[in-house]
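Q: Predict the bound structure with flavin-adenine dinucleotide.
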Amino acid sequence: MMKRSRTYDVVVIGAGLAGLMAALGARRAGAEVAVVAEGGGALELSSGSVDLLAGPWDALAEGHPYRLVGSDGIRDGLDAFLAAASAAGLPYMEDAEHRNQAAVTAVGSLRPTYLPAPGAAVVQPGCSVHVVGFQGLREFHPQVVAEGLRRAMPGLPVTWGWSDLPDGVTSLHPLQIARQLEEPACRRQLAARLAGQGVGAALFLPAVLGLDQAPAVRAELSAAHGGTVAEVPLLSPSLPGLRLGSALTRHVQRAGADLHLGARAVGAACGQGRIDSITCQTVAGAVAYRAGAFVLATGGLLGRGLDVGARVPGLPDAPIYETIFGLPVEVPAGPLAATELLAPGGHGFVRAGIRTDEHLRPPGWSNLHICGKMLAGYDPYAEGSGGGVAIATGWRAGLLAGGVAK
Ligand SMILES: Cc1cc2nc3c(=O)[nH]c(=O)nc-3n(C[C@H](O)[C@H](O)[C@H](O)COP(=O)(O)OP(=O)(O)OC[C@H]3O[C@@H](n4cnc5c(N)ncnc54)[C@H](O)[C@@H]3O)c2cc1C
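A: Predicted complex:
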């Protein structure tokens, strides 16, 4: 059977944070853009807050993705992200002094992050806090959060308590609770049930306060409480991460990119350092996507853009493979995994990826740009740089691909 085929200026492979930013960058460059992706990426696991860098800039090695795009590139990417998120209904705010802010985690510790998710619990100086859990929601324990906060900020006045969920909430799955709390009657009843809890204190609740209508749910609860109502992210599923993923995805479509989810890229037609087309498997069969330029944003080992132990025909044995083009993967010397799960220096395998030039192209390729967790030489978890690298390199890869295509 003949393979169906589609033609664009730019095809972005992957719809995580890096791929979505690349699509916006390529649209900004005036290109006709398609995003093909198997699934939604790591955003649905993330806290929804954007980590730029927890440690010092000077410690970044030569060849680190931030050094490839430079400080202007990072600023451009952040501005593009802030504008896109705000247009999509998620107004992220930078600290006035451009410092990291301290977001509260599900165990009450404080995590440095550059852009807390809108409505995320952040402790303000001089405030007091009351943490409330919902009866039956096993993913959130107010006492654990309160004790963690007392340890992290000795002297901070912290209390905790429980509330029943509204009668209209019939499921205890966090995503279902969030959907049901978008019903006006349901959130009014929740506001009534919370009355009298933590008067005069900031109210910290589990992050299940709505999905697409979260700002309206939070605003109603804040008005009833008469003060701050903020959310503490659950470990999984993470509603703030899901909100960011779905808002950015809609924004990318509104910006004019074609989005093809459920499309797994499985191979490519290439010649003389150029990619002519990729082939995607979809439920409707194989589709060839032709383009002037391609962006690879397939998320490394966790995103499935890299694989362990899969043999790529025609290439020498290697411990880690790139799954579509068979690109050479840089694997750091030394052990791939540390003995401790939360080793301070991170794990070697996390730094595996594709080494590129400053145009984010792998050596020998003229119309392929790499971004996000596919890039070599950084550890988003140990450095606290996951969202920032995805945004800065995704945006730049999209602009470059758009320029190549035109
Ligand atoms: C549990 C967890 C929590 C995190 N929390 C935070 C946080 O709170 N803040 C923060 O800043 N960072 C966080 N990070 C890090 C950050 O989320 C990632 O570094 C970043 O989002 C990577 O984005 P990406 O677009 O490169 O990859 P991904 O988000 O993994 O996206 C990869 C995309 O490629 C697609 N794909 C893969 N292979 C193919 C193929 N062959 N064909 C088609 N599509 C394909 C996938 O379906 C997906 O759409 C977290 C990461 C994890 C794992």
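A: The longest strand covers residues 285-296.
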